Amino acid sequence: MNSTFQRTGVLFVLSAPSGGGKTTLCAGLRANQDFVYSVSCTTRAPRPGERDGEHYHFLSQEEFTRRVEAEEFLEYAEVHGRCYGTLKSTVIENLRKGVDVLIDVDIAGAASIRGCGDKFITDSLADVFVMPPSVEELRQRLERRGTEAPEQIALRVRNAVAEMERWYEYKYTILSRTPPEDVESFRAIMQAERQLTRRYVNTP
Question: How far is the C-alpha of 56 from the C-alpha of 50, rounded, in Å?
Fold first, then answer.
């Protein structure tokens, strides 16, 4: 029998509370990048060292609203007074070509993707929650950033506690340890998801 097996892409959705190690984990995964990293859109101001198109697509509130009305986002949400969204077209295009996509989103964004109503997207989905070591460690990480006032940090910590209570909504949970261990855990998930029988199509 002459046939070719082709695999559809996996949509890896990664979530963690603010300060939970999500950015560090993404950086570790991208050091050996065999996937497309989806660059989100946001209305927040760039942090020091962040570049437009690499870390985020930085949009005005007006432009973000226009894209929402045009239904260009796979998911979008307002977090800590700023808007974030994932463009739909790039994600779907890559998945159909068999290219894996990694999306870094918050709890609300992950919930929106699960409930998007697109069977192709939901069948492609593998969502992962990174649980930080403790709330106190989370607070210390936010303080070390030095980018926010104490009241803003307190708000993020309160929100983080609420987010951590929703870990069970995810298919996978990584109990965060060291950055290398977190990367290893995520890589194990990626390898397993890529071998699922249902992801393969037998073409004559």
Answer: 8
Indicate whether 47 belongs to any domain. Answer: no
18 is in an annotated binding site: yes
88-101 confidence digits (pLDDT tens) = 988 999 999 999 99
Question: What would the mean pLDDT of 110-138 be, rounded to a whole number?
Answer: 91
User: Is 179 annotated as contributing to ligand binding?
Assistant: no
Residue 194 confidence (pLDDT): 95
Per the annotation, does 17 bind a ligand? yes
User: Cα angle at 170 between 180 and 125, to 5 degrees?
Assistant: 90
Residue 71 lies in a domain: no
For residue 78, is it within any domain? no
Domain count, the chain: 1
Amino acid 156: pLDDT: 83
Does the annotation place 49 within a ligand binding site? no
CATH number at residue 174: 3.40.50.300
State residue 204's pLDDT score. 60
Is pTM beyond 0.85 here? no
Instruction: Tell me: is residue 20 an annotated ligand-binding position.
Output: yes
Q: Is 3 marked within a binding site?
A: no
21 is in an annotated binding site: yes
**Residues 79, 178, 124, 100: is their CA dihedral positive or negative?**
positive
**CA 13, CA 163: separation in Å to the nearest integer?**
15
Per the annotation, does 88 bind a ligand? no
Which domain does 123 fall in, by range?
4-38+98-198
Q: How far apart are the first and last CA of the chain?
A: 8
Within a domain: 62 = no
